[in-house]
Amino acid sequence: MLGFLAANFFFALLAIFAMKYFLKVLSLPPTIWPPLIIVIGLFATYVIQGNMFGAWMAIGLSVIGYLMERTDFPLAPTILGFILGPMAEANMNRMLLAAKGDLFSFLLTRPIFLTLMVITLAPVGLKVVKNIRSEIAKDRGERA
Predict the structure, then answer these.
(1) Which pLDDT band, with edges at 50, 70 and 90, does 144 fall under?
(2) Would you say 74 and 66 are in contact if contact means Cβ atoms under 8 Å apart?
(3) Chain centroid to CA 139: how far?
(4) Do 69 and 59 touch, CB atoms closer than 8 A?
């Protein structure tokens, strides 16, 4: 507890005395900010990892993100997938251990799973049926 108080005190002193230098950074033109952020980020990945793999990975993922942005690929679901993917994988492994390898019979005997599957698949099925009916109606209209 005392260490946190001391750290906050020293950071407050640093902020007070270094504020005029921090404010000078804001006077830089806006065109300098993106390259500056990239260089600082690459330097930080190199320092944290201790090798160039992290920096090359950051460059590669940045290029992929740029290409996804250019092709109007949604970035938010991708980032969400990267964040939630390891948790989903861990829970899937836990479920496979509980099911002793027989996943489908394990899930199909659970009423909660069946209810959630019906709730999930019903709108998809209804949308497919609606599209098929509209296509049939459109074909009948073109024939007449």
Answers:
(1) low
(2) no
(3) 42
(4) no
Q: How far is CA 41 from the centre of its chain?
A: 19
Q: Name the token pair of 10.
A: 């020293």
Residue 98: pLDDT above 70? yes
Residues of the chain with pLDDT > 70, as a percent, come to 98
**Residue 133 falls within a domain, yes or no?**
yes
Residue 88 resides in a domain: no
How many domains does the chain contain in total? 1
* Look-up of token digits 């005190």: 9
CA distances to 13, 125, 135 from 130, rounded to whole Å, are 66, 9, 9
CA-to-CA separations, 67 to 40, 60, 70, 81, 97, in angstroms, rounded: 22, 11, 5, 18, 39
The pTM (predicted TM-score) of the whole model is 0.46
